[in-house]
Write a structure and sequence with these properties.
Elements: E1 7-11, H1 16-28, E2 33-40, H2 46-59, E3 64-69, H3 72-76, H4 111-126, E4 130-132, H5 148-158, E5 167-169, H6 177-187, H7 209-220
Parallel strand pairs: 1-2, 1-4, 2-3, 4-5
Length: 230
């Protein structure tokens, strides 16, 4: 990938990782024409996320920001994920059994493949050629669709396109959450305008898997999380 790119689609949830990626694509890769996509797939914290995503795209003067309604998906997958099911509460990180950590209750079945397929279709239509998403090496738990192997094999499929191929980029796949935060701090990311808590209440719970990982990432950098004050 060249150091400077002209046009790209970026998946932007409004969370810590995707917001850092948005700044990375704009400031590090020098991309001026960014087309951001935020998906509502029925996640409990969507309202909190999307507010942050909208603030970030205004701050960076992103070319276009689409909020895509896939809220039906929560019903489509039933009770399989605590991230979307109203019947299954989001667990504290401490309550997740060790054997569940490679695919915890917050895993959403096949989510990234579906969202990325839509993003790649959008990029192909725009002739953007590049899609960025913020997969990273989770420190405490893991999802198969955030792995380097997943990105590699998705690109193998995308190369079959005969006219306007799209490449998937995930520059943080080898990064810990702490390394993502370190990158964002250098890029001047306003982390007070990001949201990570899976529960989506007025304040972060500090106990769900995403909160635990986020707090540890700031601590690893000797920094305070502006949302938690610690």
């Amino acid at each position: 990938m060249s150091r400077k790119i002209t046009k790209a689609v970026v998946l932007l949830s409004g969370g810590l990782d995707s917001t850092t990626l948005l700044h990375f694509v704009r400031k590090k890769l020098g991309c001026r024409a960014i087309y951001a996509l935020t998906f509502n797939y029925g996640q409990k914290h969507f309202d909190r996320e999307v507010r942050c995503a909208r603030w970030q795209v205004r701050h960076l003067a992103v070319r276009e920001h689409l909020v895509v309604d896939l809220s039906f998906f929560a019903g489509f997958i039933g009770r399989s994920s605590s991230l979307t099911s109203r019947f299954n509460p989001v667990p504290d990180y401490a309550a997740i059994r060790p054997e569940e950590l490679d695919q915890p209750p917050t895993y959403v079945p096949n989510r990234n493949m579906i969202l990325l397929a839509l993003a790649c279709a959008h990029a192909e239509a725009l002739r953007a050629g590049r899609v960025f998403y913020a997969a990273q090496k989770q420190d405490y738990y893991g999802y198969w669709d955030c792995s380097a192997e997943f990105v590699r094999d998705m690109n193998r499929v995308l190369k079959l396109n005969r006219r306007n191929p799209v490449a998937l980029h995930a520059p943080f796949t080898g990064f810990s959450k702490g390394e993502v935060v370190a990158t964002g701090l250098k890029l001047g990311v306003n982390y007070a305008r990001t949201w990570s808590c899976y529960r989506g209440n007025l304040k972060p719970c500090g106990r769900c898997p995403s909160c635990v990982e986020r707090l540890a990432a700031f601590k690893a950098n000797g920094a305070k999380d502006p949302l938690n004050g610690c």
